[in-house]
C-alpha cells in the first residue's frame, strides 16, 4: 500500500500550489507558526521595483484571534535585527510578548518572524533550525510563484494581442483564415465567408479550394502540400471568387504556429487584394507575427514553470538520500529538457564521480554504462564539464563541431563515445550551495529540432539551485548524524577512560584507609610511599585526560593561545623521552634520539612539549614492542621533528581521519584513549604555522613528521 504523505510533505505541496504571492506568504506564515508553536507569525517581503509597497501576510492562533484588539508593527527587514514586540491596543491584553524570532529569506528579499511561543516557553534552537529549513523551501516557493505570475502576465499579453488582432480583422477588409497542419480549414473564418459567400460547411476542410479559379486550383494544392511538408512561409498568388461570382487576383500568405518539436501545429494567413493597396496589410502581418511570437513565448514559459514546479515537487517530497533523488531528477529532465542528462558530484576529497545518467532511448543502456566512465577530471582536464565542476562556470555550446569534440576528449575512446551519443548541443550548469561547487548538471541535445538558448540556460541554472539545496541539506544531515554518532562514541570512550585511573586510585585509598583503621600509631614508610606512587600516577593520567578535553574545548571555541619564547627543541625532546623512560621499558620499545643541528627557535614551550609527548605516546602505544626513533633536524627557516616506530602501522583508508577529532584507526577496546592526541597535535602545529604529515604501511610501522617555522 502507498504510504500516506506526511504533514510536512502536504505543507510543501500546498506552498508550491499557491496561486499568488500573497497566498504563498500567508501559507509560509501559517507553516512557521505551526513549526514553532507560536501565537503569531508574519511573512514580509521588502519593497522592490515590481512591488514598491512590498507585501505582508500574518497568521494568528485561535487564542489571538479571540483576544483581538492589538496591532503589530511590520517594518522592512533590518540589518541590526532589532527585537520586535507585540503592542497591545486593548485594555484586556496587558502582557507583553515573551519572545521573538526572525529569519531572513534567501537573497535578503524579506523575512519570516514569529512572536509569542505558546505554553509560556521561549523559542528554542530547534525552532530556529525549523525556520531555517522553511526558509530554504521558501526560496523555491517564491521563485515558483514568480514564474506562475510571469506566465499569467504572458497569457494576458497573448489575449490582448489576440483581441487586437481580431479587432483589426473585423475593421479590415482583408480575408483572414486559420488552417490545420495539413492546410484544411477547421475554424470559423467570418471574413472568408463574407467575401466568398460560402458558409462554414462549404469552406471547412478542403472546401475552400472550390472558391479558387478552376485553372489555379492544381497549382495552389501543390504549393500547400509542399509548404506543409517542408515548412517555411506559405505564399501563393491565385484568383479568388467574390460573393457576386467575379474573380479578383489575390496574394495568400500564411505563417506556421509551431509545436515544441518544430513542426507546424496550425497556419494563420491572410489574402490580400492585388488590385489595390491596402494600408492595413503591413499592420495585419505584423500582428500575425506578434501573435505567433507571444503565443510561443507564453507556451514556453508555461512549460518551464510546469517543469520547475514538478522538479520542486520531486526534490521536496524525496528522502534525504541524494542518490535516489538525483536519479529521479535526471530522468525527469528526459525527454522534457534533454535527450541525455548527467549528474556529476564531488566527494569529500574533491574527486568527481558520475552519479546518474539518464537517456531517452531504452536501447542505449550499454552506451550509458560507458558514458558513466567519463566523469570530469582534475583541474586543467579537457573534459567538457571540468570547468563547470571545478570553477563553477556554466557552459552552453549550441553547435558541436568535430574540432570541438577532438579538443575536449580526454582519450580516443572518449571521443568515440561522444560521437556515438551524437549530441549537437550541450548545456552544463554547476550545483552551487553556500558558495562552493558540489558538482554539475549536464544536458545533451540529440534531436535536430532541440536547440538550447539563454532562456534554457536560465531554467537549467534554476533547476541546479534547487538540486544543490537538496544536496546541501543531505550533506548537513549526514554530517549532523556523523557528529551525533561521534559524540555518543566519544562519551562512551571518555567515561571508560576516566574510570580507568579512578579504579586503582580508589583501591589504593581504600587500602590506606584500612591501614589507618588498624590502630597502629604509625604506618610503614615503604607501604605509604608505594601506595602514593600509584595514586600519583593515576592522578597524573586523569589530569592528562581532563587537560585533553579542555584543549579540545579551547580549540573548538578558538581560544587556543600561544605563549612564544626562545627555546631549544632538543632540550624539550630529551626531557619528554626521559619522562617516558619507564613507560618505554614497560612497552618494550627503547627510544633513541638523534639531534645534531641547531634546534633553537621561538615557540610555545608547553605546546611543543605537548606535540612531542603526543607523538611519542602514539609510537609507544602502537609500536608493538619494537624500537622507536626520534630525530630532529633543521635549516635556517624550519625545524623538523620525526617520530618513527615499527609497529602495527595504519591502513591507507584511515590516514585521512586520524587527525580528526575523536578519529582513530584501531578499536578503542584494544588500545583505549580518547582519540584526541593527534587532533590536538595538528591544531597546535598549525597554530604555529607548521604542518604535520604521516607515512605508514600496515604491519611495518608509521612515520610522523612535523615541520615548524623558527
Automatic annotation (TrEMBL):
Residues 234-286 form the PAC domain. Signal peptide: none annotated. Residues 493-710 form the Histidine kinase domain. Pfam families: GAF_2, HATPase_c, HisKA, PAS_3. Keywords: Coiled coil, Phosphoprotein. It catalyses: ATP + protein L-histidine = ADP + protein N-phospho-L-histidine. It is an enzyme of class 2 (transferase). Residues 161-231 form the PAS domain. Its EC number is 2.7.13.3. The keyword Phosphoprotein applies. This is histidine kinase. It comes from Pyxidicoccus parkwayensis.
Amino acid at each position: 500500500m502507498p504510504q500516506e504523505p506526511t504533514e510536512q510533505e502536504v505543507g510543501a505541496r500546498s506552498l508550491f500550489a499557491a496561486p499568488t504571492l500573497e497566498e504563498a506568504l500567508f501559507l509560509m506564515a501559517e507553516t512557521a507558526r505551526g513549526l514553532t508553536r507560536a501565537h503569531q507569525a508574519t511573512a514580509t517581503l521588502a519593497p522592490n521595483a515590481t512591488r514598491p509597497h512590498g507585501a505582508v501576510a500574518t497568521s494568528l492562533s485561535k487564542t489571538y484571534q479571540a483576544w483581538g484588539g492589538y496591532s503589530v508593527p511590520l517594518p522592512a527587514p533590518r540589518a541590526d535585527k532589532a527585537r520586535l514586540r507585540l503592542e497591545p491596543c486593548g485594555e484586556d491584553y496587558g502582557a507583553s510578548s515573551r519572545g521573538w524570532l526572525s529569519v531572513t529569506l534567501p537573497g535578503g528579499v524579506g523575512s519570516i518572524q514569529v512572536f509569542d511561543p505558546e505554553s509560556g516557553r521561549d523559542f528554542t534552537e530547534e525552532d530556529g533550525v525549523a525556520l531555517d529549513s522553511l526558509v530554504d523551501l521558501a526560496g523555491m516557493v517564491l521563485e515558483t510563484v514568480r514564474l506562475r505570475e510571469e506566465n499569467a502576465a504572458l497569457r494576458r499579453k497573448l489575449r490582448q494581442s489576440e483581441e487586437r488582432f481580431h479587432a483589426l480583422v473585423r475593421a479590415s477588409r482583408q480575408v483572414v483564415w486559420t488552417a490545420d497542419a495539413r492546410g484544411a480549414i477547421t475554424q470559423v473564418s467570418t471574413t472568408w465567408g463574407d467575401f466568398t459567400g460560402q458558409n462554414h460547411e462549404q469552406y471547412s476542410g478542403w472546401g475552400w479550394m472550390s472558391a479558387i479559379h478552376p485553372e489555379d486550383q492544381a497549382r495552389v494544392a501543390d504549393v500547400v502540400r509542399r509548404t506543409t511538408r517542408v515548412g517555411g512561409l506559405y505564399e501563393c498568388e491565385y484568383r479568388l471568387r467574390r460573393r457576386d461570382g467575379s474573380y479578383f487576383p489575390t496574394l495568400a500568405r500564411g505563417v506556421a504556429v509551431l509545436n515544441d518539436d518544430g513542426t507546424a501545429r496550425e497556419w494563420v494567413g491572410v489574402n490580400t487584394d492585388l488590385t489595390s493597396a491596402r494600408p492595413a496589410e503591413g499592420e495585419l502581418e505584423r500582428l500575425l507575427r506578434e501573435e505567433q511570437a507571444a503565443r510561443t513565448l507564453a507556451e514556453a514559459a508555461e512549460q518551464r514553470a510546469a517543469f520547475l514546479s514538478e522538479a520542486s515537487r520531486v526534490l521536496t517530497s524525496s528522502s534525504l538520500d541524494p542518490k535516489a533523488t538525483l536519479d529521479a531528477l535526471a530522468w525527469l529532465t528526459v525527454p522534457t529538457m534533454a535527450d541525455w542528462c548527467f549528474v556529476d558530484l564531488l566527494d569529500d576529497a574533491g574527486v568527481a564521480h558520475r552519479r546518474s545518467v539518464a537517456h531517452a532511448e531504452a536501447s542505449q543502456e550499454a552506451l550509458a554504462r560507458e558514458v558513466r566512465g567519463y566523469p570530469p577530471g582534475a583541474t586543467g582536464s579537457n573534459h567538457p564539464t571540468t570547468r563547470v565542476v571545478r570553477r563553477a562556470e556554466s557552459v552552453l555550446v549550441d553547435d558541436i563541431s568535430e574540432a570541438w569534440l577532438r579538443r575536449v576528449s580526454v582519450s580516443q575512446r572518449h571521443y568515440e563515445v561522444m560521437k556515438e551519443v551524437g549530441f549537437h548541443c550541450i548545456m552544463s550548469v554547476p550545483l552551487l550551495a553556500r558558495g562552493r561547487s558540489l558538482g554539475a548538471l549536464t544536458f545533451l541535445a540529440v534531436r535536430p529540432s532541440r536547440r538550447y538558448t539563454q532562456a534554457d540556460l536560465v531554467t537549467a541554472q534554476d533547476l541546479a539551485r534547487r538540486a544543490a539545496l537538496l544536496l546541501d541539506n543531505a550533506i548537513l544531515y549526514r554530517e549532523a548524524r556523523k557528529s551525533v554518532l561521534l559524540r555518543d562514541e566519544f562519551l562512551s570512550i571518555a567515561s571508560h577512560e576516566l574510570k580507568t585511573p579512578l579504579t586503582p586510585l580508589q583501591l589504593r585509598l581504600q587500602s590506606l584507609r584500612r591501614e589507618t583503621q588498624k590502630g597502629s600509631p604509625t604506618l610503614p614508610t615503604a607501604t605509604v610511599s608505594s601506595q602514593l606512587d600509584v595514586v600519583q600516577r593515576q592522578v597524573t593520567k586523569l589530569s592528562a585526560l581532563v587537560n585533553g578535553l579542555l584543549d579540545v574545548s579551547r580549540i573548538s571555541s578558538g581560544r587556543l593561545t600561544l605563549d612564544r619564547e626562545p627555546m631549544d627543541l632538543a632540550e624539550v625532546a630529551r626531557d619528554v623521552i626521559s619522562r617516558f623512560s619507564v613507560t618505554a621499558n614497560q612497552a618494550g620499545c627503547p627510544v633513541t634520539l638523534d639531534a645534531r643541528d641547531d634546534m633553537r627557535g621561538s615557540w610555545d614551550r608547553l605546546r611543543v612539549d605537548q606535540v612531542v609527548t603526543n607523538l611519542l605516546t602514539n609510537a609507544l602505544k602502537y609500536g608493538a614492542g619494537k624500537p622507536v626513533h626520534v630525530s630532529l633536524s633543521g635549516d635556517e627557516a624550519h625545524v623538523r621533528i620525526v617520530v618513527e616506530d615499527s609497529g602495527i602501522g595504519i591502513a591507507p583508508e584511515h590516514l585521512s581521519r586520524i587527525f580528526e577529532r575523536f578519529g582513530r584507526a584501531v578499536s578503542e577496546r584494544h588500545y583505549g584513549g580518547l582519540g584526541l592526541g593527534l587532533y590536538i597535535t595538528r591544531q597546535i602545529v598549525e597554530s604555529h604555522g607548521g604542518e604535520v604529515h604521516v607515512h605508514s604501511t600496515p604491519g611495518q610501522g608509521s612515520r610522523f613528521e612535523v615541520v615548524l617555522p623558527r
